[in-house]
Design a protein that fits this description.
By secondary structure, the chain is of the alpha/beta class. The protein has 11 helices and 10 strands. Helix 3 crosses helix 4, helix 3 runs parallel beside helix 5 and helix 4 crosses helix 5. The structure holds adenosine-5'-triphosphate (ATP) and magnesium ion.
Amino acid sequence: MAMPEIKLTNLSYSYSNTGHAALHDVNLTVASGSYTAIVGHTGSGKSTLVSLIDGLLSPSAGEVQVGEVRVNSSAKRANLAKLRQHVGFVFQFPEQQLFAETVEKDIAFGPENLGWSAERVDAAVRDAMEEVGLSAELAKRSPFMLSGGQMRRVAIAGVLAMKPAVLILDEPTAGLDARSTETLLGLVDRLHQEGRTILLITHQMDQVAQYADQVVVMNHGRLVTATTPQQLFADRQLLADNHLGQPAAMKISQTLQERGIQLSPTLTLTQLASQLAAQLGGDEHNG
Ligand SMILES: Nc1ncnc2c1ncn2[C@@H]1O[C@H](COP(=O)(O)OP(=O)(O)OP(=O)(O)O)[C@@H](O)[C@H]1O
Ligand SMILES: [Mg+2]
């Protein structure tokens, strides 16, 4: 078993302005290198949870541990800032936070704040642009002249430039067209393959089925379960209780089963296609 990268112990949080208890007694371990999806209906506490992991909020009770850094309710600001050095947080609609007059200046902002040398910042900006697939010639352009998908990649590059071990993405594909969605998910998958720990908040069950090795279900500020996508999607009651749907491949295979075609449970379209190809006498290894 890989080292625990993130460990949450009896973690609770109340927003001080409203006194609203947004998280109750959450316990969770995320292994180093995991791709963990966080799901749950609106207002269930997903964004609050990841804000605590990134040190944007400080716990009302309990503890957040990321790597060697531990933070509890009496944590100092400096300690919260230490969390942020390990964790990169891509907010929802991150392109709304772009501000600099050029792409490279925007991406350089985070590394500069870490006090890195000019050479180190330049190298980090170049690496990050390459990682997200932005061509070098865009460096001197205004980020506001780019397409929506490109702007979002600039924002993600700004987070990656700080070289975080953990990357949190809060609904990163919201509002993107199908093609940009696929590009972005491919990018996150690659970052995961390179060894980063990924936390993905999503309402898309296909994304959970295709990429996650762990899925965390939140409901009214409580962690209902942390399990595998296979286990979650096999449990209709659990899905219904938490207002969660099924991946498309699962719906299709159930419809086919109702019509008398024998299939084992499938979570992704690739798995479904392989089974159908085998049954129809096609060569499932061909293509
Ligand atoms: N800044 C805030 N001040 C007061 N209450 C807040 C604040 N942010 C969130 N809340 C409340 O805390 C609870 C959890 O909110 P949170 O944003 O974590 O949910 P979420 O699961 O991310 O929802 P969504 O899917 O809509 O993004 C909700 O009841 C919400 O109204
Ligand atoms: Mg949210």
